[in-house]
Design brief:
The structure holds two protein chains of two kinds. Chain A has one domain. By secondary structure, chain A is mainly alpha-helical. Chain A has four helices and two strands, in the order αααββα. Chain A starts with 8 loop residues before the first helix and ends with a helix. The radius of gyration of chain A is 22 Å and the shape is elongated. Chain B is mainly α. Chain B has a single domain, classed as Sodium/glucose cotransporter. Helices cover 75% and strands 2% of the residues of chain B. Chain B contains 21 helices and two strands. Chain B has a two-stranded antiparallel sheet with strand order 1-2. In chain B, strand 1 and strand 2 form a beta hairpin. The longest helix of chain B is centred in the middle third of the chain and has 52 residues. Classes of the chains: A mainly alpha, B mainly alpha. The interface between A and B is large, with 55 and 55 residues.
């Protein structure tokens, strides 16, 4: 960090582009967090209170509980990939608005 | 095998010791670590003895319920990725408290955050040391005196001394490389073990899963029964227990100081982000493999044999399938795992003490003399190492390791996470709120554990029915932070600086850069 002058934080914060970036991030991050929390919670609740349902064999001898658990791994990886994709877009927007602010 | 690892890591420590010039180098490895290296290091920090020995043992004895730990440990990384990694990297310097102190009154907040870091690290560390002590004692059971308490004490001392050497001399760079080597060893060891298990079933998943749906074991009443190990409910009789544990895992990981501190070793937020994704691939792959060596141990060795010594399931399986040499290799991997995790914990605790408490609380944010911060960190690492050796010996080999790790996760989730989230995302948040959140979360999670079935009154005297307090203490932590903020009145300075923190954390403007060597 080698600023010749301290950036004017509040004027950047007030830029419409910055506000739009914040809104876009919020619109993306919050639903995603709600989704993975619920998906994981659903797993815990089903296993805890409806174990009988999940004990039924689905694929050969493999039961629903194990498949649901396995699906959590893939859910996590897919969500991570989505985040990477979106975050690169946010990076571009952030770089653009900083350039516009003359930094 | 042991010796090879020890010699190699000491060589790394020696090389990095010569590269360590100044605070940024010692605490953050000069911010020079690349994404895949840091991913491996994060994974290395995370896949502790509890994961490798503990989960394998839990699946071998309790089947599917043990596998639920594997799921929770991985999903938790989404919270790290989506919520904390980038803001933290963009607005901090060395520790989690940097972010909190940004717009709040630095001294009280740092003092409290440092206390939490020390608590979490110490609980986690003692758990690892106890595990190491027991493991080495088991390994060297041929030597007569190792059987007794003496053997356990010696093993704990050995691990403690090794880790003090890494951290005191090598700093973050050596610790990171030790993590990376260990992660590679652990992954290849588990992969090989999984392949050996599958070979027993002619590489057929159908046969493998057939076998684990009908496992013979002796029930509590002495009768021979056949159990389907894929069925849930063998461990968690009370569903709330698994929900509470799940909550602690999901929100605790994002508050673990030794994981958070890793994001300062990379050049920028983008690298921090991709290192989390690297870590998620590695950790996920590893936890999927627990299917094979966990359930494999249940099918091939049988719960009756593993039950008395659940933590030795994975090494026992290695002995059965790969002979003495492979057994020694897996044990060495387990040992390396413990050593590396303990070193990672020590460095996060000592960084926090030196940077937050010594420089910023006592000396008002200025290093009295150049180099003092690093010196204090080294002294702290030494003292914490010594303290945890003493505590691990005092607690003895019988203490429940999962209980200690549960403490660490619960404290991290209930005390650290609310403060981190609110300080980055809530403008009105103030110093009182942070202190209430950090302190209230710490007290409520510790308190609930003390009165739980694994606490001081035992199963009968417990006032709180669950072993893990997460489901109650996490909401309490957030609630305390909100109440504190309301009570504290508006803090003009904190709100004025919110714009700065928000621009910094969302754009990366002004973030600490890599040092140029």
């Amino acid at each position: 960090m080698n600023p010749t002058r301290e950036p004017n934080w509040s004027s950047i914060a007030a830029m419409p582009e910055f506000q739009a970036l914040l809104r876009a991030k919020r619109r993306f991050v919050i639903p995603c967090c709600v989704f993975f929390t619920l998906y994981y919670l659903a797993f815990l609740i089903l296993v805890g209170w409806h174990a009988g349902l999940l004990s039924k064999p689905v694929l050969g001898k493999v039961n629903g509980a194990y498949l649901f658990a396995l699906s959590q791994f893939f859910m996590t990886w897919i969500m991570a990939y989505i985040y990477m994709y979106k975050a690169n877009q946010f990076d571009k927007a952030a770089a653009d608005l900083l350039r516009k602010a003359g930094l | 095998m042991f010796l090879l690892f020890v010699v190699a890591t000491l060589a790394i420590t020696f090389v990095s010791a010569r590269k360590n010039t100044g605070s940024s180098a010692y605490f953050a490895a000069g911010r020079s670590i690349t994404a895949w290296q840091n991913g491996l290091a994060v994974a290395g920090d995370y896949m502790s003895a509890a994961s490798f020995l503990g989960i394998a043992g839990m699946i071998a004895c309790f089947g599917f319920d043990g596998f639920m730990y594997s799921v929770g440990f991985l999903v938790a990384y989404l919270t790290v990725l989506y919520v904390v990694a980038e803001p933290l990297r963009n607005s901090g310097k060395y520790t989690m408290a940097d972010v909190l102190a940004y717009r709040l009154k630095p001294r009280p907040v740092r003092a409290m955050a440092s206390l939490n870091t020390l608590c979490v690290s110490l609980f986690y560390m003692i758990a690892q040391m106890v595990g190491a002590g027991v493991l080495i004692q088991k390994l060297m059971h041929d030597i007569p005196f190792m059987q007794e308490t003496m053997g356990y004490n010696l093993s704990v001392c050995g691990v403690g001394v090794m880790m003090i050497i890494y951290v005191v001399f090598g700093g973050m760079l050596a610790t990171t490389w030790v993590q990376i080597i260990k992660a590679i060893l652990l992954i290849s060891g588990s992969l090989f073990l999984s392949i050996l298990v599958l070979r027993k079933f002619d590489y057929s998943f159908v046969q493998f899963f057939d076998a684990i749906t009908q496992i013979k074991m002796t029930a509590a009443d002495g009768q021979q029964v056949v159990k389907n190990f894929l069925d849930p409910g063998m461990k968690f009789k009370n569903p709330w227990e698994s929900v509470s544990l799940g909550a602690a895992l999901l929100f605790g990981t994002a508050g673990l100081p030794h994981i958070l501190i890793r994001f300062y070793t990379v050049p920028d937020a983008k690298t921090a982000r991709s290192s989390v994704v690297w870590a998620m691939w590695i950790i996920g792959g590893f936890y999927i493999m627990t299917t094979f060596f966990g359930f494999g141990a249940a099918a091939l060795i049988g719960p009756d044999v593993t039950n008395p010594n659940p933590n030795m399931s994975a090494p026992m399986l290695a002995q059965l399938l790969g002979g003495e040499f492979f057994f020694a290799f897996i044990c060495a991997v387990a040992f390396a795992t413990i050593l590396a995790v303990v070193a990672g914990l020590t460095i996060s605790a000592s960084t926090s003490f030196a940077h937050d408490f010594y420089s910023n609380v006592i000396h008002h944010g200025k290093e009295p003399r150049p180099g003092m911060e690093v010196k204090v960190a080294r002294i702290t690492a030494f003292s914490i190492g010594a303290l945890s050796i003493v505590l691990a010996i005092l607690l003895g080999p019988k203490v429940n390791v999962a209980f200690l790790v549960g403490l660490a996760f619960a404290v991290a989730a209930s005390a650290n996470l609310p403060a981190i989230i609110f300080s980055v995302f809530w403008k009105r948040f103030n110093t009182t709120g942070a202190l209430f959140g950090l302190g209230g979360g710490l007290v409520s999670s510790l308190g609930l554990i003390l009165v739980s079935p694994v606490g001081m009154f035992g199963k009968e005297g417990a006032w709180f029915p669950l072993e893990n307090p997460g489901i109650v203490s996490i909401p309490l932590g957030f609630l305390f932070a909100i109440i504190g903020t309301m009570l504290g009145g508006r803090e003009a300075n904190a709100e004025a600086k919110f714009d700065e923190l928000s621009v910094r954390s969302h754009t990366g403007l002004g973030a600490e850069k890599a040092s140029s060597h």
